[in-house]
Amino acid sequence: MDDYTKAINYFNEKKFEDAQKILLQLLEKDSTDFNVLNFLGIIQLHLSNYNKAINYFQQVITLYPGHAGAYYNLGYCYENLGKDTLALEQYQKAISYEKTLTDAYLNLGKLLVRRNDFSGAEENYRSALNNNVITSDILNNLANLYYKLNKWDEAIKYYNKAIEIDPENARLYFNLGTCYLKTGDDENAIAGLEKAVELNPDYPEAMNNLANIYTKLKRYEEAVELYHKIAAVNEKAEVLFNQGYCYQQKNQLDKALEYYGKALKLDPSLKS
Predict the structure, then answer these.
(1) CA distance 196 to 265
(2) Whose CA is closest to 250, among 205, 242, 231?
(3) Taking 70 as the threshold, does the pLDDT of residue 176 lie above it?
């Protein structure tokens, strides 16, 4: 087994120091080996040492200006350092050298959403899909974009496509249920949110949205049960207030006063 393969094995075993030691020895023998430099950069990236990683990837590009992976990794490092403009530039360069680099399109799309460039984000998400590497992550991000733009039908379409690929993902069902909630389709909203809670019983956001629908439909027993579970983890004033409301509607006035009081103690502004 050659030394480079040994380094790969150490890396796969998360023995990063051992892998790095071998690679540095290889670099002493040949300082122009861009594969070794790139590998060293990837190790630093995994260790979240982004500035050190950047130094390695820049050396790779100096030796091999068309290295799409190095540009992508540079973009990832800059993104994690909060340098979005530099990240955008590097992702775009990566794509210019390798049109099928799906992750670059995906990350570029996410950055453009943060910049409110929604048409640019949509273009990149669709480019990612056109690479014949369709993942639930790409579909979910495209659906999230349509959700943000209030294009509910499109969002629902792509959440469902994402679920087809990853049917055990609670977050996807939460997103789908919440989208149906925006359309006023309580039945499908409940189905999505209940599935999210079934897959992840400790999912406060899904439980809260589901409890709110139950309250709206006067299913107070079910709503109280969910609000109670949420409050056991995080006693938010809004959740306690909603519990109080449900108890009031059930004519359990002592309980209602108890929970209204707890809510007001946490957030006196609820009096208004």
Answers:
(1) 31
(2) 242
(3) yes
